[in-house]
Write a structure and sequence with these properties.
The structure holds two protein chains of two kinds.
Chain A (H helix, E strand, L loop, with lengths): L1 E3 L15 E5 L6 H12 L3 E6 L7 E4 L12 E3 L1 E6 L4 E6 L8 H14 L4 E9 L13 E5 L1 H14 L7 E4 L3 E6 L8 H11 L3 E8 L5 H15 L32
Parallel strand pairs in A: 2-7, 2-8, 8-12
Antiparallel strand pairs in A: 1-3, 3-6, 4-5, 6-7, 9-12, 10-11
Helix pairs in contact in A: 1-5
Chain B lengths: L18 H8 L4 H13 L3 E4 L19 E6 L1 H10 L6 E8 L20 E6 L2 E9 L5 H12 L8 E6 L42 E3 H4 L1
Classes of the chains: A alpha/beta, B alpha/beta.
Chain lengths: ~260, ~220
């Protein structure tokens, strides 16, 4: 599934042993994907390959992180991998939704690639419908985390220090039997599936998610990427961290074209 | 609604996986479900039939992949009509293959003698240079069939030294630009090219954040 780019790096550029892998879930507001765009754009990450998969709707365009004429003509497709060896970081960006009935095979293929590439841990950026929060979740921070048991051992203490809130479980049969609790991430796309599969396969995975709604999700993306930064310290966190992240050129015209002058 | 690079879905929520769909999948698949799913998949399978040598029976693929130097693919009614009007004729080109498919939007004609209003997907070869291939695809190839189309068609060709040109059309209203599309002189051409394509492109390149989707993208 993973096809490396033919660059000078060759095999070395696709050696991800011990790296942290960031993956977005295609979820409400596309917040995970927007956050990943910010990471790739700000850290100026290099594309090292792509996923050749029949599970995602095909799309293609020119380089979404173009900064000048020279680097704007590289083709970009729906699932690409970028890396920053200096921070032992590798990132998968997913740009289109799953084809019907194909999300399970994609999850299987992704997790098997995680194992074969020997990434140390995976961080899944996701989101969940804000309207499904209960009374307690309406108050306080809209950001949540989850850790698989294997990663809990390694970083559970850090989460306590950062005072992060773990995603609450909900009653399996609300109103009837409140004792049985299950994980429920409405609007989270493949988040729950990837998380439960990682738990059972012994993969070190963390999920970072934000409660949000569809609309202008740029502020949600900033909130999520700053949340991630509290842990990974990808950029120096100063008082006004929003201005430290570089918005990619492809975020232009998110709300449509210019207006026809004849309108006025 | 906000959109971003790669936004191709028109569903109310962009999560891509409906909660109902994922709940359905969570239930165990009964043998009947499996049978239904298999039948549906079979119905949506694409058949690529080649008649490489005139007189030879139609086959799904030659024993060895055939040599192809240029492959021009026209996707959609407009592009197909362009080829019919300006390029194709019965003197220089011969039909060498057909794709048979079915989906909710269209079913391809069974014959190679098609009307412009039919849905079809035909392959032609230049008689004077049999390595030049042309494909007219006026039928809609559904999301789940695009990859199959790609693998089955390109699977029959030798890819060394192959130059592929894809012709397609998109509505001007979908074009993202600083000015309004009302004042844009249309129609206009834009191109995307791989870095291996070294020749001169005859029109400007497609600017960010515009994208191409479906079969042309595949």
């Amino acid at each position: 599934m993973f096809v490396p780019c033919e660059r000078g790096g060759g095999a070395a550029s696709s050696d991800f042993k011990g790296f942290t892998l960031l993956v977005p879930a295609v979820s409400v507001g596309n917040v995970g994907q927007l956050a990943i765009d910010l990471v790739i754009s700000t850290l100026n990450m290099t594309k090292v390959g792509y996923f050749y998969t029949d599970c995602l709707v095909p799309m293609v365009g020119n380089n979404p992180y173009a900064t000048a004429e020279e680097n704007s003509v590289e083709l970009s497709i729906n699932a690409e991998v970028y890396s920053l060896p200096s921070k032992k970081l590798v990132v998968l960006q997913i740009r289109s939704p799953f084809i019907k009935n194909k999300y399970r095979p994609f999850c299987q293929a992704l997790l098997s690639w995680v194992k074969s590439s020997k990434c140390a841990r995976v961080i899944l950026l996701s989101s969940s419908h804000a309207y499904q929060r209960d009374d307690e979740q309406l108050l306080g921070t809209p950001l949540r985390y989850l850790l698989t048991p294997d990663l809990e051992k390694a970083v559970g203490g850090l989460m306590q220090e950062l005072k992060w809130k773990e995603m609450e479980k909900v009653a399996a049969y609300p109103g009837i039997n409140d004792s049985e609790k299950v994980l429920h991430i409405p609007g989270g796309g493949i988040t729950k599936l990837l998380f439960t599969e990682s738990c059972s396969k012994g993969i070190q995975m963390a999920v970072l998610l934000k409660f949000c709604s569809e609309g202008d999700n740029i502020p949600d993306a900033f909130a999520l990427v700053n949340y991630l930064n509290e842990w990974l310290q990808l950029i120096k966190s100063e008082v006004n961290t929003s201005s430290q992240w570089k918005i990619p050129s492809s975020w232009r015209l998110l709300f449509g074209n210019g207006l026809p002058p004849a309108l006025f | 609604m906000a959109t971003f690079f790669g936004e191709v879905v028109v569903a109310p929520s962009r999560a891509g996986v409906d909660d109902e769909e994922s709940a359905e999948e969570a239930r165990e698949e009964t043998p009947e479900d499996r049978e239904i799913r298999r039948e549906l998949e079979k119905k949506r399978e694409i058949d690529v039939l080649w008649t490489l040598k005139s007189g030879a029976p139609a086959g799904s693929c030659a024993e060895e992949p055939f040599v192809c130097s240029k492959f021009i693919v026209a996707i959609g009614h407009n592009a197909a009509a362009f080829l019919s009007s300006f390029i194709l004729d019965s003197v220089c080109w011969e039909v060498v293959g057909v794709v048979k498919l079915w989906n909710e939007w269209c079913r391809t004609s069974n014959t190679t003698n098609v009307l412009p209003t039919d849905s079809f997907c035909l392959f032609y070869r230049l008689i004077s240079d049999p390595t030049v291939l042309l494909c007219q695809c006026s039928c809609y190839v559904a999301e789940d069939q695009q990859f199959q189309w790609l693998e089955k068609v390109f699977g029959c060709m030798r890819k060394e030294g192959l130059q592929v040109t894809i012709l397609s059309t998109c509505p001007v209203a979908d074009y993202k630009t600083q000015e309004s599309t009302l004042t844009l002189p249309s129609p206009f051409l834009k191109a995307l090219k791989t870095k291996e394509f070294k020749e001169q492109v005859c029109c400007p390149l497609l600017e960010q954040p515009n994208i191409v989707r479906d079969l042309p993208a595949a």
